[in-house]
Amino acid sequence: MSHAGTLAMIPALGYVAGKVAEHKEQLLQDLNAALSTLLDTPIREMPVQLLLQILAALVLAVAVLVWYVRKAAAKPKPVYLLDFAMAHPPDTWRFTKERFVPANSLNTRFNPESLDFLGKMLERSGLGNDTYTPPWLVNEPIVMDIAHARLEFEVTCFTAVQELLNKTGIQPRQIGCVIVNSSLFNPTPSLAAMIMNHFKMGSKTINYNLGGMGCSASLVAIDLAKQVLATLKDTYVLVVSHENITNNWYPGNDRSMLLPNCIFRCNGAAMLMTNKPTEARRAKYELQHLVRVNLAGQDRAYRCVYQLEDENGDLGVRLSKDLTAVAASALQKNMVTLGPLVLPFSEKFLFAVNLLKRKFSGKKVAPYTPDFQLAFDHICIHSGGRAVIDGMQKHLALSDAAIEPSRAGLYRWGNVSSASVWYVLSYIETYKGLKGGDKVWQLSFGSGFKCNSAVWVAKKTFKDTHTCWTGFDPAKMWEDLNALTATLAAEKAAKRAAAEAAGQTLPENGH
Ligand SMILES: CC(C)(COP(=O)(O)OP(=O)(O)OC[C@H]1O[C@@H](n2cnc3c(N)ncnc32)[C@H](O)[C@@H]1OP(=O)(O)O)[C@@H](O)C(=O)NCCC(=O)NCCSC(=O)CC(=O)O
Question: Could you tell me which residue ranges the Chalcone/stilbene synthase C-terminal domain spans (predicted)?
Fold first, then answer.
């Protein structure tokens, strides 16, 4: 029954309760008399009508019991996130900003304009000085073979999984299913098989490998884990999210394909999910909602993150300038489903009034964006790039404090693809901590084009210091980011003034 139906029954129940209280004495006397007659009368002597009434009551009781048991069995069992751990590559993989252009100069195929573009984009990207790249991509000789791509996966993800097993005390043989997502590196045997082989998992463990699913694939993997947990009893599902830099380093001169070299960096996240009731108390979170939106049916959205060969045959991923606009439209669609599930009544009401005004007022009314900060205590937005985060902050009208974890994710780790929502959550656990009952929103975007949301509820009050944030200084980050914002604003103003002087008008984005 819907909540509205339940609410509507309250006055009726109140009326019945009032009447019962009013005639309590009489009712008790009648019941007593009926019971004594019933108990003193052998079944053979009972009137047929009474027997039928007893039978009907018994049938009704059994039907209610069966309905209740079936309803309880059909209710999805809770899905818990026991814990998660992040990859933290070795210090020898640190890739400072000063090294970026000299290291890229080792690739003799980059022309001077490309090197200029790479340097300029890095400066404006919102990445800090301390991200990680496999050393074989930025030292001579440059190697981009499959053995090194595998090595990158081992260094990042095996360590994250090992740390997760150490934290939880779960043995590899207890894991019933392994799910790995990596968009651009899908060797055979699969990455999921590599995990099973390294950790010597049992032959009954099932595995899945999600390829080509972009930066929002971690939440697709979580959704798959949820579905697996609905079919396997009392088990653990290990989810590993990774994007490979070695297999994705573009050596050519197409600007839109060079952009990933500027912003994508080494990463890995390992999550342990379970449906075991005995783990309910120590689990960090319970999954409350998972909403997936996929715009693959629309050409512009489908093509805006696209792997292809350039005109010289070099393979890379082209990032379209449309990406932030497409992400905003995917977000809008996701919010339409997510909003009613999570927003407080006041926000739903304002949204509905706005909708009616837009439909029937005959005037141009701007759409109302609900305040999602009223629905969630913590927000983890995919740190896909400075422009992506800026766009999301604007669309969702988020405060600097609410968006800080995502900015920190980009600044400290770069665009770490689908693992980003976990680096962001680990920042929240490390710096802010959670209270039991806190709601966390993970929001990811990626090729397809997809926008996925996961809502988690903290099961306890805790703080967890993740090693991937050791030594990080949020104040220094804000100092750098504020300086960058000021530089970009000054540049934009100068461009606009020059254009106006020349009698031209620049579009909103300044180009
Ligand atoms: C790259 C930026 C840091 C640049 O910042 P700026 O403030 O300088 O931006 P801007 O718009 O003024 O652009 C500066 C210059 O870069 C060029 N430029 C910008 N975007 C470009 C693109 N996609 N392809 C080619 N050129 C591009 C502009 O034309 C301009 O060139 P000129 O100076 O010549 O006029 C920012 O635009 C950004 O963060 N973009 C989003 C990156 C992104 O797509 N991330 C999502 C990754 S995909 C992902 O995360 C999901 C997935 O993979 O599945």
Answer: 380-449
Q: Which residues pair with 444 in a beta bridge?
A: 452
* Beta carbon of 214 within 6 Å of any ligand 1 atom: yes
**What is the average per-residue pLDDT within 396-425?**
97
Higher-pLDDT residue of 341, 25: 341
Residue nearest to atom 2 of ligand 1 (CA): 125
Please tell me the distance between residue 304's alpha carbon and the centre of ligand 1 in angstroms. 12
Substitution site in 255, 417, 420, 488 for ligand 1 pocket (most atoms within 8 Å of beta carbon): 255
Dihedral (Cα; 351, 354, 360, 362), 10-degree rounding: -150
Cβ of 255 closer than 6 Å to ligand 1, yes or no, is yes
- Give kind and range of the element (H or E) at residue 413: helix 400-413
Q: Check if 384 has its Cβ closer than 6 Å to any atom of ligand 1.
A: yes
Q: Is the beta carbon of 506 within 6 A of some atom in ligand 1?
A: no
Task: Determine how many CB atoms are found less than 10 A away from the CB of residue 449.
Answer: 26
CA 489 to chain centre: 31
Tallying the residues shown for the chain, one arrives at: 511
Q: Is the CB of 256 under 6 A from ligand 1?
A: yes
Residue whose structure tokens are 């090729």: 447
Report which DSSP code applies to 369: -
The per-residue pLDDT for 9 is 53
Distance of CA 380 to the CA centre of its chain: 7
**Beta pairing, strands 450-458 & 439-446:** antiparallel
Q: Which secondary-structure segment (H or E) carries 175?
A: strand 175-182
What's the rounded Cα separation, in Å, for the pair 171 and 166?
Answer: 9
pTM over 0.90: no
pLDDT tens digit sequence for 324-353: 999 999 998 999 899 999 999 999 999 889
Q: Tokens 């200029």 sit at which residue?
A: 116
C-alpha 36: how far from chain center? 64
The single residue listed with the structure tokens 């609900």 is: 370
Q: What is the ipTM of this complex?
A: 0.96
CA distance 461 to 196: 33
User: pLDDT, tens digit, for every residue of 158-211?
Assistant: 999 999 999 999 999 999 999 999 999 999 999 999 999 999 999 999 999 999
Ligand 1 site, residue 305, Cβ cutoff 6 A = yes
Using DSSP, state whether 365 is helix, strand or coil.
coil
Q: Which amino acid is at 124?
A: R
HEC readout, 48-93? HHHHHHHHHHHHHHHHHHHHHHHHHHHCCCCCEEEEEEECCCCHHH
CA separation for the pair 353, 366 (Å, rounded) = 12
Cα 119 to Cα 129: distance, rounded to the nearest angstrom = 13
Is residue 255 a contact partner of residue 117, using CB atoms and an 8 Å limit?
A: yes
Cβ–Cβ < 8 Å for 211, 448: no
